[in-house]
Amino acid sequence: MAIPISNGAHRDRDRERDRKPVMDLFGDYTLRLVALGSAVLGATSGALGSFAYLRRQSLLGDAVSHAALPGIVLAFMLTGSKAPLVLMLGAGLAGWIGTLAVQVVVRRSRVPYDSALGIVLAVFFGVGLVLLTYIQKLPNAAQAGLESFLFGQAASLLRRDVVTMAVLGAAALVILLLLWKEFKVLSFDPDFAAGLGLPVRRLDGVLTLLLVVAIIIGLQTVGVVLMSAMIVAPGAAARQWSRRLAPMVAIAVAIGIFSGVTGSIFSSYVPRLPTGPTIVLVLSAIFVISLFMAPYRGLLWRSLRFGVLRTAPDLDPVLMHLYALSHQHPDDPEHGHSVAVIQTMSPPEAKVDAALERLADRGLAQRTADGGWAPTPIGRREAQRILDREAGEGS
Amino acid sequence: MNERQEWALEVEDLTVAYADKPVLWDIDLQVPKGVKMAIIGPNGAGKSTLVKAAMGLIKPVAGEVRIFGNSRDRAEGQIAYVPQRATLSWDFPTDVIDVVTMGTYGRVGWFRRCGAAEKEEAMAALEKVGMTDFARRPIAALSGGQQQRVLLARALVQDAPIYILDEPFQGVDAPTERAIIEVLDDLADIGKTIIVVHHDLQTIPEYFDAVLLLNVRAIDSGTVEEVFTEEDLRLTFGGRVGVLAASGGQVEVGGEVSP
Questions:
Q1: What are the residues whose beta carbons fall under 8 Å from the beta carbon of A32, sequence distance 6 or more?
Q2: Which of residues 136-165 of B touch A (CB under 8 A)?
Q3: Angle at Cα A150 formed by Cα A148 and Cα A153, nearest 5°?
Q4: Which residue has the higher pLDDT, A302 or A92?
Q5: C-alpha to C-alpha distance for B240 and B13, rounded to whole angstroms
Q6: Sign of CA dihedral B60, B63, B68, B70
Q7: Contact criterion met (CB < 8 Å) for B102 and A197
Q8: Which among B113, B143, B154 is the top mutation candidate for probing chain A, defined by the most A β-carbons within 10 Å of its own β-carbon?
Q9: Which of A119, A227, A241, B60 is the most buried (most CB within 10 A)?
Q10: Contact assessment for residue B35 and residue B57, using Cβ atoms and an 8 Å cutoff
């Protein structure tokens, strides 16, 4: 019998898994270092990535991380040093030049923003690969290890690397907190921010610089190819669970730290499992769960919410009356209609008030500022769908 | 005293181009202090562009913008701006009171958080637009009219001498339109200058006391009585608007007819 045997094996392994990583986290120096570094990288990319997500700049993160590669190699070629600060400075400079290049292309030509990002990403990454291949053919062995920046190699993290990451990450987060309200209004409504007299272009530059810092912090662990996932996914997942900015950023930071630490533990437990990609996989799992399961915004929630309508026939007539009334104001579909009017259109025993409240719960109707009711755009679409269906059945 | 200071907003020889195609050509405009001015013109006339150039959001090819006689660069924070509702991302994770509080960010100062005083100002502004019950509502859950009221409340909190609103009546319900007009009238009463990009010709004489007719060039500007004439409207809109009759000093404007 195969089933009991495999169950037994699972139980043994589960017990082992329960014990070993916890022990390792406190006992194993390398794992502790890797987990700490990954937590720092998860926290900074979660926070700055949230802003990139809200400003629709997720792809900029991808371009910056690819553009950093030639910077890393050039920094080594010029200095002969592999000190973390030197390589990160090279990466940061190249990434920064990459963002400037995108701006120049967009401003000086008719190439659209996404294409400019793609071009800059490809050109910089290509130059990086050429330089990397070139120095690997040199007789000198000192360059060994630079290629690990492609896909990341967490095991190569040294104490000085993690210290540099922590200092840079802390500095980025402190600046983010200090300029919180300015960055918030910049992200929501840059034109209004300019009207307030805020130096919008400089603030935009600082926020982009902080994003570059968040990216270079992660390059050694996750690598230039997968780094963009660390920028995009925590913010995108956190947005599903939050309605305001501060909780969103806090949740994104928590997701980043959790993915970093969990990914490190998994990869140290399973032989030959690379840390960076494992972290990204954990993160992707959290993102997929958030996409489906989150309340209000999750796909499952939404399909349940709108699916229920078909099993609530008492609501349909009220929605249809509301839809018919809204046609009296073709220029202003959100004009409010009083409950009394809808009541006169309905059978006397109909509980119009309760039906309206339930329609509102489903996002199909809304209370207007003058105390009346109006169908929402979704409600109007749903009503039209019911009409179309009835017309189809009639013919 | 500089004689120009009697103008709230002054535009001189302003030309703006996108990719070599001029969208505003040699605009001259003087907006006196305390007027309610409508900017009207057909689609693509450059109405929003003119407003953005006045705000310093767009760099003109040529020309100058002065605010109370000073160059634009020294006039930061003098204009409270209500952008077009549809240009904003209403999915941003924030609530109504937070958006309105943004109007105080210019004077709260760097590195400081908004406190109880700022929240109080924001609540007072929400009351003026009839939105106090919605203070903690996520902005994603607002109707179009409610969104427009929130943007107006945010501008009220900013308390600037000039208010510029870009299409504030676009797609809002009738009570919201009335509420906005009441707020603008109150602002004009305390000496604020109000400039509104507007699209409904019928309400111009009722809502405004000055008009700029714009179609890439400034066709004409002045008081409603002087400028809001059949001839000027024809020049601005070409054949696309049928002006039915001018009677009793009020111009009646019909719908669009094919050219």
A1: A24, A25, A26
A2: 138, 140, 143-146, 149, 154, 158
A3: 35
A4: A92
A5: 28
A6: positive
A7: no
A8: B143
A9: A227
A10: no
One-letter amino acid for residue A110 of the chain = R
Q: Give the end-to-end CA distance of chain A in Å, rounded to a whole number.
A: 61
Is B119 in the A-facing interface, judged by CB distances under 8 Å?
no
Contact partners, residue B232, CB within 8 Å, separation at least 6: B213, B219, B220
Q: Which residues make beta-bridge pairs with B70?
A: B67
CA distance A286 to chain B (A): 20
Burial of A121 (0-12, 13-18, 19+ CB in 10 A): buried
What is the C-alpha to C-alpha distance for residues A320 and A356, in angstroms, rounded to an integer? Answer: 11
Q: Tokens 């910056």 belong to which residue? A: A64
- For A362, residues 6+ apart whose C-beta sits below 8 A from its C-beta are A305, A306, A308, A309, A315
- The pTM (predicted TM-score) of the whole model is 0.79
What are the CA-CA distances from residue B16 to residues A108, A113, A201, B216 (Å)?
16, 22, 20, 9
With an 8 Å Cβ cutoff, is B94 touching chain A? yes
- One digit per residue, the tens of pLDDT, for chain B of length 259 reads 455 457 999 999 999 998 778 899 999 999 999 999 999 998 888 999 999 999 888 889 999 999 998 887 766 788 999 999 989 999 999 999 999 999 999 889 899 899 999 999 999 999 999 999 999 999 988 888 999 999 999 999 999 999 999 999 988 888 899 999 999 999 999 999 999 999 888 899 999 999 999 998 998 888 988 888 888 888 888 765 544 333 334 444 444 433 3
d(C-alpha B224, C-alpha A389), whole Å: 51
Which residues of chain A make contact with B166, given a CB cutoff of 8 A?
none
ipTM: 0.89
Structure confidence by residue, pLDDT tens digits, A135-180:
888 776 666 778 888 888 888 888 999 999 999 999 999 999 999 9
**pLDDT tens-digit profile of B202-231?**
899 999 999 999 998 998 888 988 888 888
Q: What is the side-by-side order of every strand in the sheet holding B70-71?
A: B21-32, B7-18, B62-67, B70-71
